[in-house]
Amino acid sequence: MRKKSLAKRIIAIFLLIVLIFGGINLFWYGFKYLPYKHMAENMQLSDDMGRPKYTYTDGEYVYRLKMPGYLSFGSGFLYVVRKDDEDAAAFVADEEGNLTEKNTPHVDIFIWPKMFSETQYGVTIYEETDSVCVVTNSRMQFIPDESLPDEENDRLSALFEAHKDEIQELIKAAVQFW
Fold it and tell me: pLDDT digit string (tens) for 2-61?
C-alpha cells in the first residue's frame, strides 16, 4: 500500500514539474520569442559565428535584430544605424600592434523592448577617437548611470543633447520599420 502511495506522489511531483516547466516555456514563447519572430519576418537571417541575427537594409538605414536566448526574458535587441555609417566604427592597430578606435562621427541605437516596463534605448555616440554609450527612454530622457560621478553624467547628458536630433531620427526609423 505504501509503495503505491509513494509512486503516486512521485508521479504527481513529476507531472507538476513538467506542467510548471511547460508553462514557463509557453509564457516565454508567447510573450518574448513570438514578438521578435514577428518583427524578423521581412528580414534576412545571417548566422554570425553561431549567433543568428536578422538584417534588413533600405536606402537610408540598416536594421538588425537579435533573437532572445531560450527562456531568457532579458536578451534580444533591435539595432538601427544610418546606412552610410554602418562601417564607420572600427578598431585599427597602431605601429606597435595595439588596437585603437578610429571612428567617423555618427550615432547608432540599440532597442530593448520590454514586456512589462518601458522600452529602453541604448545610444552609442561615436566621435573621432572615442565612443560613449548612454541610455534613454521612449520620451528621449537621458538616464544617468548611477555608477558614474556626476561630472561624467553631466558630460554624457550634454553629448546626448548635442546629438538628440540624430537619435530621434533613428528612433523614428525604428518605429516605422518595426
Answer: 778 889 999 999 999 999 999 999 999 999 999 999 999 989 998 766 667 899 999 899
Q: If you count them, how many residues does the chain have?
A: 178
Phi and psi, residue 61, nearest 5°: -130, 155
Q: Quick check: 44 and 56 in contact, CB under 8 A?
A: yes
Which of 66, 83, 84 has the alpha carbon at shortest distance from 75? Answer: 66
Residue 31's nearest CA partner among 69, 91, 73 is 73
Look at the alpha carbons of 144, 146, 151, 152 in this order and tell me if their dihedral is positive or negative. Answer: negative
Helix residue spans in the chain (DSSP H): 2-28, 34-39, 150-162, 164-177
Rounded CA gap, 133 and 126, in Å? Answer: 9
Phi and psi angles of residue 101, each rounded to the nearest 5 degrees, phi first = -95, 135
